[in-house]
Specification:
This protein has helices at 14-25, 46-49, 69-72, 133-142, 156-167, 183-186, 188-200, 248-252, 297-311, 380-389, 395-399, and strands at 7-10, 32-35, 76-78, 83-87, 92-95, 100-102, 105-108, 112-114, 127-128, 148-152, 171-175, 204-206, 211-217, 220-226, 231-233, 236-239, 243-245, 261-263, 274-276, 281-285, 290-292, 323-328, 331-337, 346-352, 357-364, 367-374. It is α/β, with parallel strands linked by helices. The protein has three domains: 3-113 and 243-311, FAD/NAD(P)-binding domain (3-Layer(bba) Sandwich), CATH 3.50.50.60; 127-239, FAD/NAD(P)-binding domain (3-Layer(bba) Sandwich); 330-408, FAD/NAD-linked reductase, C-terminal dimerisation domain (Enolase-like, domain 1, 2-Layer Sandwich). A five-stranded parallel sheet has the order 3-2-1-7-19, with helices on one face. Strands 9-16-10-11-12 form a five-stranded parallel sheet. Helix 1 (14-25) runs parallel beside helix 9. The longest helix is centred in the C-terminal third of the chain and has 15 residues, at 297-311. The chain is globular.
Amino acid sequence: MSPDNTFVIVGGGLAAGRAAEALREHGHTGRLVVIGDERERPYVRPPLSKGYLLGKEERDSIFVHPADWYARNDVELLLGTGVRALDPRAGAVELDDGSRLSYSRLLLATGSSPRRPAVPGADFENVLYLRRVGDSERLKAAFTEGARIVVIGDGWIGLETAAAARTAGAQVTVLGHGELPLLKVLGREAAEVFARLHEEHGVRLRPGVEVERITGTGGRADGVLLADGTRLEADAVVVGVGITPNVRLAEQAGLEVRNGIVTDEHLRTSVPGIHAAGDVANAYHPFLDRHVRVEHWANALNQPETAALSMLGQDAVYDRLPYFYTDQYDLGMEYTGYTEPGGYDRVVFRGDRDARRFIAFWMSGNRVLAGMNVNVWDVVDPIRALVESRAGVDDARLADPAVPLDSLLP
């Protein structure tokens, strides 16, 4: 078959699976190949730190499509296959075995990889990272009654894995750089909510620490040594210190790379015929008027529709506000909007912070930049509308649960 109408997707996550679906839905009738370096068909990652890790969801629930969907939709899956290089000039990808596959359009949905701490012992076999389904299964096996688990990192992944470990009855210590978990992301008042949540569930939080090394013998970790000389014993160590976008292929092929693969609002990269979506894409966002790289499920879910239309030559724009969620113990949370550390003036709360049933709004002047609902449901749409309206809102009305959110819209 000639490459004239061959579309290739590199990646094996949600963005890759959704892009294949959107391409078929929007009329791509040519050859369609998905290349993934894992042996699993495309799957979704949030359950790996949430429902699947907690044993509440079956393994089958993680997949983007049923096993027979790909054959039914004439989508070729090349699984357990790495891409060695891109050749944009020739319009081809080179696979690990040296073979080449020509394309007319290419989507890079290569995702990201967990950062490894630059300390001795980070490669011991029971030092666990969370990115792939096998990682989640190793964590599940380690999280047993009475097991001593040390979590390095107090961001979302660190806290979600800590919650899963405590729920399984493990003894859990979470090590953080800052004064509070999530302090940089959420600011003090909202971060205190998560700190109290974990302390109430018996997690030991150790803020403001530096890890000197992970100790162990015979290839297995048995503890974590801190810079102040404290040593914490561990049956397993979980590392959640952030992720790095997988940009090697793009970089080597000469695409513009800056904190991810740089794209425009149509998810087109700097090289014609190549698009990017999901964790790896640092995309121009017209509403925010800046490039943003969002490491969350909703982006991998929704961006592929725009990428697919764009690959098919249509003028689609990705301007959806960032959204993410977390579930920890009895706390469920959704966050809508975008703000950076130091990018807002204050946080306005509506509801009862102590009871962990509230909405928090990040404000710049009298404008809402982002909202986070904690154990309050069915409010994402009005929060999104408030942010998108750029309307001036009075703090007192915003904080008053008796004032319907819809009534604050212009």
